[in-house]
Amino acid sequence: MPAKKKAAPAKTVKKPAAKAAPKPVAKKAPAKPVPRKPVPRAIRAAAGEMFRGFTPYPLKKGEPYMNDAQRAHFRGILQGWKRELMEEVDRTVHHMQDEAANFPDPNDRATQESEFSLELRTRDRERKLIKKIDEAIANLDAGEYGYCDSCGVEIGIRRLEARPTATQCIDCKQLDEIREKQMGG
Question: Which H or E element spans position 174?
Fold first, then answer.
C-alpha cells in the first residue's frame, strides 16, 4: 500500500486589518454635588470662622486707600462680627444655665462637664478675638487701620476682608511665620 501524502497546509492570506471605528465612549452623567448639611453656628465659631455677612468692597480704579467708604465698610464688618460673637456668648450662658444638672451618674456628670469645658474654651478664644476686634476698631478710629505694624505698607483690601483683624502685610506675616518655625522647630 502506497503511503498517503500529507496535504500541504493551505497558505492563509492575511487581509489588511480594516480600521475599526472608534468605540463610542459612554458619557457619564455629571456628578451631582453632594448636599452639605449646614454647619451649626457654634461649630463655625469654634473653628474660627469669621463673620461672613458682608458684600466685598467694590474697588474703583484710582481710589485712595482707606478712604471714608472703605473705613465704613470695615467698620460694618468688624461691628457685625463682634455682635455675632457676643450673641454666641449670650447663648452659651443661657445654655449652661438651662442645662446645668446634678446627675447622679458619674459618667453623665463627666460628659456634661467636658461639654461645658469645651464651650468655655471656645468662648475664651472668642473673648480674645473680641479684644482684637476692639483693637482693630480703635485703629480704624485713629486712622491707623489697614497699615502694617511692622513696615507701614498697606495691608490690602482683600486681605483685610479675609482677616479683618490683620495687623501685618502678607510679606511681614510670612517672615514672622518663618521665624516661628525656625525657633520652634
Answer: helix 170-184
- Do 66 and 152 meet the contact criterion of CB atoms below 8 Å apart? no
In contact, 49 and 40? CB cutoff 8 Å: no
pLDDT (tens digit per residue) in 70-88: 999 999 999 999 999 999 9
Q: Which residue range forms the structural domain that includes residue 123?
A: 41-50+63-145
**Could you tell me if residue 83 is inside a domain?**
yes
Residue 77 lies in a domain: yes
Burial of 126 (0-12, 13-18, 19+ CB in 10 A): buried
Q: 63-93: buried (b, 16+ CB within 10 Å) or exposed (e) per residue?
A: eeebeeebeebbbebbebbbebbeebeeebe
Where are any strands of DSSP class E within the chain? Answer: none
Angle at 82 between CA 161 and CA 40, to 5 degrees: 85
Cα separation, 51 vs 57, in Å, equals 15
Crossing angle of helices 106-142/68-99, nearest 10°?
160
* 84 part of a folded domain: yes
**pLDDT per residue as tens digits for the range 7-51:** 555 555 555 555 555 555 555 544 444 444 444 444 444 334 455
